[in-house]
Amino acid sequence: MGSSRLRIFDPHLERKDSAAFLNRELPLPTFDVPYFKYIDEEDEEDEWSSRSQSSTEDDSVDSLLSDRYVVVSGTPEKILEHLLSDLHLEAVQDKDTETLLDDFLLTYTVFMTTDDLCQALLRQYPSLNKEENLDVPCRKRKVLHLVSQWTSLYKDWLHEDDNLKQFLKTIYRNVLDDVYEYPILEKELKEFQKILGMNTHAHSISHQFSLKENWLQHRGTVNETEEIFCRVYITEHSYVSVKTKVSTSAQEILKIVAEKIQQAEEDLTLVTFTFSGEKHELQPNELAISKSLESSSRIFVYRKDLTDTLMPFAENEELQQKSVRILGINTWDLALELTNFDWSLFNSVHEQELIYFTFSRQGSGENTMNLSLLLQRCNEVQLWVATEILLCSQLCKRVHNCKTWEKIPGKFKKLFTELESLTDPSLNHKAYRDAFKKMKSPKIPFMPLLLKDVTFIHEGNKTFLDNLVNFEKLHMIADTVRSLRHCRNNQFGDEVPPKEHQELKSHIHHLHVIDNQQTLFELSHRIEPRV
Asked: Does 301 share its domain with 372?
């Protein structure tokens, strides 16, 4: 068997028997062993293989009557070759070809590097000196169309990839050379000029955008324009989560934290600690994030006249009063601000990040920055809710806001019961999945469940079968990941809350969090001791 091969399902192979088969009165059976075809080099003999697969009766009918080839597995080169041969340039792509193209572009990093894909595309781009036939301009245009779709899908995800930049320049020069021989390439030439223009622009300017501006922020490494959640610890187990750029100075972060904990900025200082015990006091103009991102280090806020950190939140009366004020804010405004912030995070997650997260868990941080922010936010919101409740130590105020089960109106009990049913995890979260499916976009999925689905597909299916890429597995993963696209078909409106709720916005963006379960447990017992 040659090294370059493609395994596909050919519905035409049984065409001779299909008429007689369809004339039978018996229902169509299901096949546990459908046939697949190996395609090797052009003159090599066909070989056959079978694979166990369960199908429903409808699936069998669709498979037998379909006029398309379904890619099952193959080498990267052969899959790419098959994909290019199926592309239609003048007409709109049929759904199957469009899906195959999208599957390939979303998942190619699983079985080949970006440099490998660039080299493979250059090999597929016919050389002017080597080939002279009518098919050459069509093949060139197909390669250019695929590259255009690739850069459109990934946007700025790849603009810092040196291999891709060199590839785009090389293929652009090729098009410049070819356009005189093949004027039909003029349209593709203009398209590439736009692509190179965007690439150069994105590389040369300082990216002054934030998560709220709906830009996809993807980098191989953390750069100074990206936004992250920086944890500034007040005590050993409580911190302020500050959303800030990597380029933010220590003084800017200190100003946010000081306002948050209602302390005078001039009385405070930021100190980085490593677990080995090393301490470094940050100067006002020093970059705080570069220090905090070092392995095994944390940022603490200290009183300049004390050697210990500030007192815990629970013992700070001013912070307790602020928590009470938060509990009194209109619930609609609170929900709106939480949704606005979460949408800005979700809208910045690229579909590729889920694949990187699943396939490279050890090194996923380099390519999953936005996804990591969203997951971190999910965890912090849960802890923030508990923190806010437990910091309100005055029982009368807690009862006024939370009441007791006996005094809760029936409509709220019903609402809570519906929420319990919706979050019921039985039958693989069927209630939630059904409700979410009926919702119109824009909508934010429960990301841990989506990651669970992708992981289930990954761990339940081999990536390679007989040294061939298991493309069926990659199609299932791509199909799951594409759900992000459907959730963002319509953009969430920027509803700006009243000016008097700017304090709420600041509070939502920079949460007070106690992340130690034992500390939360002790606070709970201090407020309501066990009988």
From this structure: no
| Selection from 238, 225, 418, 412 nearest residue 313 by Cα | 238
Q: What is the mean pLDDT of residues 263-269?
A: 79
Of the pLDDT bands very low, low, confident and very high (cuts 50, 70, 90), residue 444 is very high
Contact 113, 39 (CB under 8 A): no
Q: Is the dihedral of CA 340, 345, 349, 353 positive or negative?
A: negative
Place of tokens 């300049």: 304
Number of independent structural domains in the chain: 3
Helix (H, G, I), strand (E, B) or coil at 89: coil
Short-list 259, 518, 512, 227, CA closest to 380: 512
For residue 252, the tally of other CB atoms under 10 A from its CB is: 15
Quick one: residue 467, left, alpha or beta (phi over 0 = left, psi -120 to 50 = alpha)? left
- My answer on whether 331 and 369 are in the same domain is yes
Task: Encode burial over 33-44: b for 16+ CB neighbours within 10 A, e otherwise.
Answer: ebebbbbbeeee
Q: Is the pLDDT of residue 49 over 50?
A: no
More confident residue, 80 or 31: 80
Q: Which range among 89-93, 301-305, 356-360 has the greatest average pLDDT?
A: 356-360
Report the alpha-carbon distance of residue 173 to residue 167 in Å, rounded. 10
Question: Which residues are registered as beta bridge partners of 95?
Answer: none
Asked which of 53-67, 303-317, 329-343, 450-464 is least confident by mean pLDDT, the reply is 53-67
Kindly state whether residue 209 falls inside one of the protein's structural domains. Answer: no
